Fold this sequence. Notes:
About 20% of the residues lie in helices and about 35% in strands. By secondary structure, it is of the alpha+beta class. The strands form 4 sheets. A 6-stranded mixed β-sheet has the order 6-7-8-3-9-10, sandwiched between helices. A 5-stranded antiparallel β-sheet has the order 13-12-11-14-20, with no helix packed on it. A hairpin with a 7-residue loop joins strand 17 and strand 18. The longest helix is centred in the middle third of the chain and has 18 residues, at about 170-185. Bound molecules: adenosine-5'-triphosphate.
Amino acid sequence: MTPPIVTIQNVTKRFGASFRAVDDVSLDIADNEFFALLGPSGCGKTTLLRMLAGFEIPTEGTILLSGDDITTKPPHRRPVNMVFQSYAVFPHMTVAENVAYGLKVTGMPKAETTPKVQEALEMVRLGPLGGRRPDQLSGGQRQRVALARALVKRPKVLLLDEPLSALDKKLREEMQLELVRLRHEVGITFIMVTHDQEEAMAVASRIGVMQAGKLAQIAPPSELYEHPANRFTADFVGSINFFDGTVRGLDGGMAQVRCERLASDFLVDAPAGIRTGDALTIGVRPEKMATVDTMRPPADRPVNRLAGTVAEIAYLGERSVLHVAVDGASDRPLVKVSQPNDRRLGRGAAALSSGAAVTLWWRPESGIALVE
Ligand code: ATP
């Protein structure tokens, strides 16, 4: 394995006497990776990024870049550059002057900066717009100027702090693809902070989920979604139903879980070390469930079933999302089920209506056992 480009070793950042914004975080980021730091507001992701940029100094721990200790190095002496949420471009300069600025302050002669600036503008697809001023650009184009400004100095690592959050949804999705293309093209490491799980999944090859200053899980997007390590990650990444219960029995690698609230027993693949009597939560993604009318359960294998009444249906074109109130549960909790509106699947979810009695089912192996 190639050595990591960024090594974060036991880094803690305290504000005040006892508050730990970042709490004993260790993480390796590989060269050429697109890494996303994901988490809710206040979890410490920006503070961690700012320590990589040199805008904050860790209270404890070490940060290495290509093996060099940069923990206390000032920002301008690190081979990293940061792109901020607000476009941070100079309004009185042209696009090309904005991009050239960082090179000019290092004393580089104009004959050298001009081709570099043009190359950076081409990279972000602003080649012909070098003569414009920022107020003659769209939001997406302004953010490209900020990207070109960061890239023109050829940093080893590009740090991106919620770079797309000021853009509307459609443009944001377009720019996500652009970022992935750009990273590929320039061949450097991107580390991006976001609170948007869909955005992190769309761009990153690996995601670090942060919770209260700590890394809750580090994994590629699909692993995070399919095998969340804990309830926090399962809930934060994608939509999920939780069924809290107690293990009643263990048989053939499966746990039978009694869920009192739903007056039901469910099967799930037994996690290592689990014992009868232990508390266990089963997480089930909405698309892993179906109604027996739209998709018939297999007759030869055990499946979990749950009877209810459709409370609400959201038609989303390709899919419908049903909210089903569980029968037999005193507080009628809602279970979320997402079904394709595909005619091949019997009547299709779109044919169901509010108030209809349904039986939901899912395979034991489709549930995620969460021990906490
Ligand atoms: P957001 O998405 O809202 O920006 P975040 O996950 O990036 O959140 P941080 O900005 O890293 O969170 O902040 C983490 C915690 O540290 C927050 O509780 C914040 O109030 C606190 N914090 C950040 N900077 C400072 C500071 N300079 N002084 C005191 N507390 C701070």
